[in-house]
Write a structure and sequence with these properties.
Order of helices and strands: EEHHHHEEEEH
Number of helices: 5
Strand order of the largest sheet: 1-2
Distance between the termini: 39 Å
Structural class: alpha+beta
Shape: globular
């Protein structure tokens, strides 16, 4: 576990991503894994009492495979540069018009104040998010 970044090892993430999308660079992957981990850690988690829904920073041994998958998927999307819309969404922009062209950003990628780059990662993490109205 010497290369543990967040909830996964670099090797684990590299294998997961390579099988689905193709080879990736180690340094790029490491940076993206840290960014994805930070997003996951900043989500408010629904939990009864003081019990956490999934282990957080200090207890990574029993992390759900779904959470690991979300981190790896988000890291891949970050590496692909899919974050332009995400940065606009985090500023509150949900649509934009230029002349007769219009773009709408997918708000389903946002959990509270956290904007994800990957749709599947966002859907996974929404299962754990605290609902606020």
């Amino acid at each position: 576990m010497s290369n543990l970044i967040g909830y996964v090892t670099c090797e684990e993430a590299k294998e997961f991503i390579s099988l689905r999308y193709g080879p990736v660079e180690d340094e790029e992957l490491k940076k993206a894994l840290y960014l994805a981990f930070d997003k996951i850690e900043s989500i408010g988690v629904r939990s009864p009492g003081t019990e956490k829904v999934f282990p957080r920073k200090n207890d990574k041994a029993n992390v759900l495979d779904l959470v690991k998958k979300a981190q790896m998927l988000e890291a891949y999307s970050v590496m692909q540069g899919d974050g332009e819309d995400v940065s606009k969404m985090s500023l509150g922009v949900t649509s934009r018009s230029i002349g007769d062209m219009s773009i709408s950003f997918d708000r389903s990628l946002k959990i509270g104040d956290v904007a994800f780059s990957n749709v599947e990662a966002a859907r996974i993490m929404k299962r754990f998010s605290r609902k606020t109205f």
